[in-house]
């Protein structure tokens, strides 16, 4: 992995950009509450996020999104809807392309696993201070059932630049 000299989005050739890893995030939203996790390992360990992770060989983004929720919280998300894409470039050279889903219901009882602690929040009380910086930019759009594509440049945990396009 080669560090890149970018400080703004315009320093990156987005036309030919391809992430090292495709991944997913899923937000179960039910009766004005959202199910988040305290992530115990992997990229973003310690932060609050939606359950999710990297695609496995041969898997679709939807299959990955469902599997990751099952693995991390022992529940199955239902009524999955795709809402958008987040293209993350880090200045250390790493990149990850995240596909974001919302689910309006689930089967089972969410429990702690070795990957995640389940946490429910009212949708007006989302703990953005404990989440990745980009979440404030696009999670409100997903909550409004909008579709979006966003590009983000990070130096470790610090977001240097971003842009979001709303899709119709
Ligand atoms: C940089 O900004 C990010 N913001 C948000 N909201 N989420 C992010 C960001 N960067 C990565 N993520 C998400 C995307 C994925 O859901 C995870 C990373 O995947 P993880 O390291 O958990 O991958 P797994 O395949 O589950 O890995 P292990 O099972 O080996 O732990 O973070």
TrEMBL record:
Name any GO cellular component annotation.
cytoplasm
Q: Which reaction does it catalyse?
A: 2-oxo-ATP + H2O = 2-oxo-AMP + diphosphate + H(+); 8-oxo-dATP + H2O = 8-oxo-dAMP + diphosphate + H(+); 8-oxo-dGTP + H2O = 8-oxo-dGMP + diphosphate + H(+); N(6)-methyl-ATP + H2O = N(6)-methyl-AMP + diphosphate + H(+)
Name its co-factor(s): Mg(2+)
Q: Answer whether the UniProt record assigns the keyword Acyltransferase to this protein.
A: no
Under Enzyme Commission nomenclature, its number is 3.6.1.56
InterPro entries the UniProt entry points to: 8ODP, NUDIX_hydrolase-like_dom_sf, NUDIX_hydrolase_dom
Q: Name one GO molecular function term.
A: dATP diphosphatase activity
Domain of life where this protein originates: Bacteria
Domain Nudix hydrolase positions:
19-167
Q: How does it assemble?
A: Monomer.
Family stated for the protein in its record: Belongs to the Nudix hydrolase family.
Stated name of the protein: Oxidized purine nucleoside triphosphate hydrolase
Q: Native species of this protein?
A: Endozoicomonas numazuensis
Its ancestry begins with: Bacteria, Pseudomonadati, Pseudomonadota, Gammaproteobacteria, Oceanospirillales
């Amino acid at each position: 992995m080669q560090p890149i000299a970018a400080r703004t989005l315009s320093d990156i050739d987005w036309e030919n950009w391809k992430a090292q890893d495709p991944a997913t995030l899923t937000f179960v939203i039910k009766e004005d509450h959202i199910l988040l996790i305290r992530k115990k390992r992997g990229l973003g360990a310690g932060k609050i996020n939606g359950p999710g992770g990297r695609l496995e060989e041969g898997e679709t983004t939807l299959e990955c999104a469902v599997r990751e929720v099952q693995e991390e919280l022992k529940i199955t998300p239902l009524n999955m809807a795709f809402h958008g894409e987040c293209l993350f470039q880090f200045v250390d050279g790493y990149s990850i392309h995240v596909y974001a889903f919302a689910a309006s219901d689930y089967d089972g009882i969410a429990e702690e696993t070795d990957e995640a602690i389940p946490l429910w929040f009212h949708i007006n009380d989302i703990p953005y201070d404990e989440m990745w910086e980009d979440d404030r930019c696009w999670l409100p759009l997903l909550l409004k059932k909008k579709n979006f594509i966003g590009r983000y440049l990070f130096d470790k945990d610090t977001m240097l630049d971003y842009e979001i396009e709303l899709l119709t």
